[in-house]
Design goal:
ten-stranded antiparallel sheet; globular; Glucose Permease (Domain IIA); 275 residues; disordered N terminus; single chain; four-stranded antiparallel sheet; 2 domains; Immunoglobulin-like
């Protein structure tokens, strides 16, 4: 078992919400934090909501909560248990401060696209949204996560991007600098839901679903070694690092989503081991 999986399993004793005389409970593996994924457990058959939105609960009572970059400081977690008891708790979400990252020397077209480019960009966005909307009961995420490639971290989650001097959207992944052709390995088991060789901004793009709507995206690839519909195992060779799309140099941009919530991959893998 890798260290990430061990943290997940041992952390489940950390937070406990005890409710009702019947003893129903929700267990969460960590404190809420902007950018964090929380793995929870509850009694099978429980209905769980976060701020009124339903959360998938598996047959064995596992569920996921995701907190985006700008998640509010307080959210309400509620549960309806099989015995008819109910409970809720207001969770305090730790707030983060984010860096400002300036990237210069990009092709002007990649910073200020033309109307013709925007047609292509909107098509790319639709494909990505469809792939990230995949939601089934698999629990591949319980096996934990490993770094897909090793190298210098050149960009971090949440940083405000200033491209060629122009403020743009924040960065929603972690960038790892590596040479073109370096092997990208699956950070966890999963199902390939998108394999696209050339998107406008992200270039070679691969999306892998880990169950419950949790997905990894790998951007700027020079080659993709798997195809849509493939089921891959942690450690499998799935792609090669590239410098495609909007980049200033070769690197892997690894992103994670829980459906519409953009998460920080570094919170799941911890420090990178020496190369």
């Amino acid at each position: 078992m890798n260290s990430s999986a061990s943290r997940i399993l041992t952390g489940l004793v950390g937070l406990l919400i005890a409710v009702g005389a019947q003893g129903g409970a929700l267990k969460l593996d960590r404190e809420p934090l902007q950018g964090a994924l929380i793995i929870g457990r509850t009694e099978p058959g429980t209905t769980v909501t976060i701020d009124g939105s339903a959360v998938r609960v598996s047959d064995d009572g596992v569920f996921l909560l995701g907190f985006g970059r700008d998640a509010p400081s307080r959210v309400r977690l509620a549960a309806d248990f099989p015995d008819g008891s109910r409970a809720h708790r207001d969770l305090q979400v730790a707030q983060r401060s984010y860096e400002v990252q300036r990237v210069d020397g990009l092709p002007p077209r990649k910073v200020s696209p033309s109307e013709e480019d925007m047609v292509r960009i909107r098509h790319d966005i639709a494909l990505v949204k469809k792939a990230r909307a995949h939601d089934d009961p698999r629990e591949d995420f319980l096996g934990g996560f490993e770094w897909p490639v090793k190298g210098r971290i050149s960009g971090v989650y949440g940083s405000q991007r200033v491209l060629n001097g122009k403020p743009r959207r924040p960065h929603f992944g972690v960038d790892v600098a590596a040479p073109v052709g370096a092997i990208v390995r699956a950070p966890a088991d999963g199902l390939v839901t998108l394999a696209h060789s050339d998107m406008f901004f992200s270039g070679g793009t691969l999306i892998v679903d880990h169950g419950h709507g949790l997905s990894s995206s790998f951007l700027h690839l020079s080659a993709i070694l798997v195809k849509e519909g493939d089921f891959i195992r942690q450690g499998d060779s799935i792609a090669k690092v590239g410098a495609t799309g909007r980049v200033s140099g070769p690197h892997l941009d690894w992103r994670m989503n829980l459906l519409g919530n953009r998460l920080d991959p570094q919170l799941l893998v911890g420090p990178m081991a020496p190369q």
